[in-house]
Model the fold of this input.
Amino acid sequence: MADVWATFSELDTAAQERLAEVLETRGADPQQQAMRRAFLAEIAFPTQARVLEVGCGTGVLTRALARWPDVAEVVGIDPAPSLLARARELAADLPNLTFRQGDGRSLPLEDETFDVVVFDSTLSHVPDPGRALAEASRVLRPKGWLAVFDGDYATTTVALGDHDPLQACVAVMMANSVHDRFLVRRLPALVRAGGLELAGFRSHGFVDAEGGYMLTVVDRGADMLAAAGQLGADTAAALKAEARRRVAAGTFFGHIAYASLTARKPS
Done:
């Protein structure tokens, strides 16, 4: 599949704005926020830490990092100019936060200049994640921290049973937006192969019973199926309506398992 986020700028303006809203919708979800607070709590930030977030998008986690105890400076990097423009708007009140355009597989940064490097829901979207991890290791100072949070997207579901038609929306959305649905299962091996020392690896569960973020997954999947000619516009609209009927009836269910990993660069 294509490198989705590296080619983000090729989408029309409306599509870019919709995806920016999806990132902020996910970031505003209380469960998602709680998972990321637990993830950040696993990092022993040194005093006056300099932190890099790779693949920052609209800056949801970057803003949290800028407010985190012991963090002095945060840099967010993303390949998409429109997402960075939105990130700068939303972080206008945070003087210790800056954003730069760049690819995580070839960071425009000097060696050993950061205490912590964070990937939040980024590596699963990146072809050659090992290269991105090698770049993270390069810019980390000795004893610096690598921290990764990502979805085990093979677990993503809205199905209430076998052959649920809404699951087709999830399947096509994952196939077209996630480069490796099984990435987190290989993370420890990838990190060790990059010469970093594993410090922690744990799971986090996300359940959506109210039709928040997971409704955006259904909607995008239905639109993709229609755009590919695999179903008609009326059927796509009917699938979206069915998801909302379940929300109204109190029967909607969505789930994604996430995982977080921390590692350290040897001294």
